[in-house]
């Protein structure tokens, strides 16, 4: 066993008291980890969609379902999880290398305050012991209410055979809502997600990708390099991909689309389910479309650092003041002057300084800045129209055409 793998397993992995049951395959080239909390109704369809993939690739891929709950779970959730575990035992006919982890029975439940982050981590860490480390294995994150296309594994294996980045994000399009309200809510949220990514791309941010738990994958060695999955109750995907991008990069995969569920949920503090629930209840959703001018400021700030890596913090902040006093205040509040002095002292090369800068000015600080710079309460359609126009796509004035354009730009063309 490689030293770095052994070190991770000893110091960072969560391997007990949870155990893998079901398929005992080892030496696999990839593993798919699927957390499941009360997913007895949706998990069968997810696994069936996987089963339509290339049979040869299915034999090289371990599928791990992590059935989980906390001690305070309701009787309804408990019964659902019991049914899921019973169903998994009877699924030997599925053409999958199917295994599962019981993190729901008494004595095996997740600790109080834990949730999907820990459930993903338990599955990923267990998978490390089953991988073929001689063949650059990779790990795939999926959800128990998400459908995949029949070319899902083909696209993943092809990507990791050629791409250099440690991580990959997959194109996505949520399933059609069960009613008009749900459909309207999920497309409005998708327009926000896609316009935000588009703005980051135009600004030149290295964090211009989506953070969706059911639509990312990573090399197993990159997973370890990033310290493994975090244990957050929500946003675990955002923070993991941010860290993965810092240590090995995150690239966009093409050639397939994943289809998360659009259903409302209040299980976690934020995320798709809660956003849909808020929208349907007539509440202000917990997201905000970003002004084009905010992305312009971000672009100019990133360009400034890129072309003047030898400038002092004082010189940079002087230029920043002329660009945006709000950006100046933001940077001062977060100790940029001290940080920049350290970067210049510890990193002499242009590329090294930029990497260190982007480690500091990461996806979270980028989001915080853009939120701070956004003041407009205009119609989202108008905001997105201006953003697209800035990016070279004029004339897209209504939400459906804006969304369709962004879907095409982000790898979802023809998958509706």
SSE series: HEEHHEHEHEEHEHEHHEEHHHHHHHHH
Strand arrangement in the largest pleated sheet: 1-4-3-2-5-8-7-9
Radius of gyration: 22 Å
Broad structural category:
alpha/beta
CATH architecture of the largest domain: Alpha-Beta Complex
The count of β-strands is 10
CATH superfamily of the largest domain: Spore Coat Polysaccharide Biosynthesis Protein SpsA, Chain A
- Low-confidence runs of at least 5 consecutive residues: 266-270
The structural domain count equals 2
**Major sheet: size, sense and barrel closure?**
8 strands, mixed
Terminal Cα separation, in Å? 45 Å
CATH fold name of the largest domain, please?
Spore Coat Polysaccharide Biosynthesis Protein SpsA, Chain A
Approximate strand percentage: 5-15%
If you had to describe this structure to a student in words, what would you say it looks like?
This protein is of the alpha/beta class. The protein has helices at residues 3-11, 43-51, 55-59, 75-89, 116-128, 152-162, 180-203, 220-225, 236-248, 272-280, 292-307, 313-323, 325-333, 336-346, 350-360, 363-373, 380-390, 399-409, and strands at residues 20-22, 30-36, 61-68, 97-103, 138-141, 147-148, 167-169, 216-219, 250-252, 258-259. It has 2 domains: 3-172 and 210-256, Spore Coat Polysaccharide Biosynthesis Protein SpsA, Chain A (Alpha-Beta Complex); 292-373, no CATH class. The strands form 2 sheets. Strands 1-4-3-2-5-8-7-9 form an 8-stranded mixed beta sheet, with helices on both faces. The protein has a two-stranded antiparallel ribbon with strand order 6-10. It starts with a helix and ends in a 7-residue tail after the last helix. Residues 266-270 have low confidence and may be disordered.
